[in-house]
Please model this.
Amino acid sequence: MTLAPWIAAPAALFLWWFSTGAILWVVRRSAGGRSRAALWSLPALFAGLAGFWVSLANGDTMAVYLGFISALLIWGWIELAFLCGMITGPNAYPCPTDAPFWERFIRAWGTIAYHEMLLVLITIALAAISWNQPNTAGAWCFGILFAARISAKLNLFFGVPKFNTEFLPDHLSHLPSHFRIARMNWVFPISVSLLSIAVALFMAQAGHAATDPQKTAKILLASLTALALLEHWLLVLPLPDAKLWRWMLPDPKPLAMNTEREGRHGI
Model:
């Protein structure tokens, strides 16, 4: 075994940090021309789709990285389109503070409906295309991102002690009104338990992998899942996670307030 598989963990950490920062940077710089920013970034989506397709038939280490990075490019463009307001949902209004549970759920779904349906379709499509292929790292990467997003959104809906809205664009300022501040919700223990089990399983598979490419793929997936687990814990721990990206953004003035105060509903 070479050292190459163990470079996968810091590589996944860097790609997660850099891709998140790049999306926030583009959104912050594109104020007033958001649609153009999403359209100009379409080559990144096409590169991701092409790289994903090319990576499927090859099971070597470079193909594993290509599939992983390609999935991040596809995911990143969809998130950029969401933050730019191109692919969101039919509801663009704040949720009344006295709305009952089911009304709040319907309103919350309406704010992200088109985006979530697109993610479902792409997740299914990538999984179907990757079926029985030598390299499935890209499909697994996208699936982990999708599952973690659904879990995080459910936790925000049912209530967490804090959530960071500092980087949320003005045109999406209605979103936090659908979140809840709460000490704990019943989804959170399930979320962190499942993510922890997934990390352990991926690491166990990495330890028993017969080849470097297989080990690399499992470490990449374990690292990505561990980062998703960390993001869940940041919903309850009073840590200044926004500082990871604030320094690299062109405008230091926050677009929205960081909501951490107990008992506050939305912004």
